[in-house]
Amino acid sequence: MYLPLFVVLTLFVSLYSANAGDYCVADLNLPDGPAGYSCKKPSKVTVDDFVYHGLAAAGNTSNLIKAAVTPAFAAQFPGVNGLGLSIARLDIAAGGVIPMHTHPGGSEILAVIQGQICAGFIDSANDVYFKTLNKGDVMVFPQGLLHFQINAGKSTAIAFVSFSSPSPGLQITDYAFFANGLPTDLIATTTFLPKDVIKKLKGVLGGTN
């Protein structure tokens, strides 16, 4: 028994569409937008799009905050584009800190694999939740809320963090206030901080005005 040609073509298109709809590997040659990257043509997708090796090496913690974040977001790991998840590695040297920050695009879950990390967040009612985490401990940070991580031990701490978005975004509060050209007078008015303190912080973080 032979199927009509249009039935065969319909089945073929359905199977092809189902396969292509399983994922949307990022085409990094095209611009990123609010909805993510455009999809790479299925014929150009390879297994390497779904594998990322960048989290094996420790990040460089020889900086002001003594910490490093190594992301595996859509821009680094095209296979997570459109899947609603991503991952990153945190390396925090002794005395290091990931300053107060937010991820406007996704919630975060942190798993400590080495050392001790004091982590916490502030909710919209200004209630504070923080705890010192040890190896194997996990903590979640709801989307958009201010949160932080501090090395609470005497040796380098390592954690992996996963996000509910392939591009969760990042805004570090200290840099938002003091690492740009926002006028000192405006910062003083909106934060109640003394101007000499603001200028000192601007000097440390590279801000002007």
UniProtKB/TrEMBL annotation:
Signal peptide residues on this chain, from the entry's feature table: 1-20
Gene Ontology molecular function terms on file: manganese ion binding
Disulfide bonds: 24-39
Superkingdom: Eukaryota
Alphabetized CDD domains for the sequence: cupin_OxOx
Gene3D superfamilies: Jelly Rolls
Pfam family, one: Cupin_1
Binding site for oxalate: 103, 108
The protein, known as: Germin-like protein
